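Slide 14.
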Amino acid sequence: MNVLFYRRFNLIWSTLHSVREILLTLLATMDVENDDIDNTGLVVTEYLTNLIRHSEGEDEAVTLVIGRTLNSIKIELIDPTSYFHPTTSKDQHTDLADGELREGGMGLALIEHYFPDFRYFEKHGKNHFSFALPLKKVKNRVVIIDDEHASLQLVNAYLERDYDCHAFTDEHQAYQYLMAHNVDLLLIDMNLNAMLADEFISNIKQLSHLNNIGIVVISGDGSRETMLKAHLCGVDDYLVKPVKKEQLEIVCERVKSRCVSRSVNISKGELAAHKDQFELGALSAISFGNVAAGSGGDVLVSVNKQDHSYVFFGDVMGHGESANRVALQLKGYILGLLNCPFDSLADFVNGLAKSLPNQDFMQQSLVTFIALEISERHISLINAGHPLPIVLSQQHIVTNIGNSQPLLGLDRDYEYHSECYQLEHGHSLVMATDGLFENHENCFELQQLVEAINTANISAIGTDLSQLWYKCLPRLSKEIDDSSLLVLN
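Slide 15: predicted structure.
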């Protein structure tokens, strides 16, 4: 088995989102059926949820291993916990013969229903849970660009049996195709007619949907200077003409595998440094999703200043790596402003409205956000184009609060004003980025989503706010945008 991903995670709630994100990112690139992706998300979410509930926190960990065989993807979770023992639980405490799907326990009936060939055993004091997903017989898409017809036809002939090939002699036509399609590999000559290859490659790297494309240069120029120039452009490999079929096939497979691994390369340091639960004066805050995992275009910044706390919870337009780059710069910018003197929350936001649109990193992006000032249980709030937050009472009554004011930069003369609320004891203030309910087909705002969850199972949430996030999670393949949840109580 070729191991594509191997990482240890602390058994905390942010791990659930991180693992789901890794599974979706990797499986979507590996030609797995959407139903299998959804079933994987359901089973792994159930498994991890139970481990996290019964773990002892960050002192315990689970290891995720994702590997590839010739015809399948293998998912394996390894944990040292004593909460569940596979033999006693499966054989004595759960009747799997009736075919019922159950939540709770370790979801054994759920697992066996979707993955009847799963394996679960104990080795060296650790539980190993694994199952396999069959691969679709779908060819990877390759774009080939070369202004020499004979060379173009030869490379196309070498690869067309194993790849979905699209060959171009004109780089402008190729660029139009690349803008509109997901492509796995780009094979390009270093000397194009009208546009230099390094300029073309630079333009391709600006397309967010091609963040993980593999790029191979095939050129008649084997000089050290030209090869160095190509590698400085960020290409994955360089071949000198004439190219043999076996050599080309090996390089394409190597680059493709390398790009798959790169697409799920999340920094251990970022995950370890993040804390998803924190204090805001008298209130407790917990975050879930992208802001908890430190990925995507969602932003959360909080600062405690004497007897007041300030929170900026925002959503950068777009998603994935391109939005993440903007979000990281925005986070640093907001943190700097929050640490500077200002008279009021409105003063802070109006200063932000005048300065942020002029920053280089925001020139092609928009951001919606909620800014909060907290003193004891008194909350001042400004909502700039963000989904309306809700108050969730102990009786599960859901109430929208506040009004949405214009996005930053749309009206330079607009003066933002704050709205004030007193959060009662036992009530929770719930905020989300719009990806949370956009990932659900029939919900168009946070209130609808939470009410749908309460209607389906009003007793499931209780005072366990992690259950609110768990119930909000969509089917894995339906996640179309970054999503985060922030709860204060």
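Speaker note: The first strand starts at residue 2 and ends at 10.
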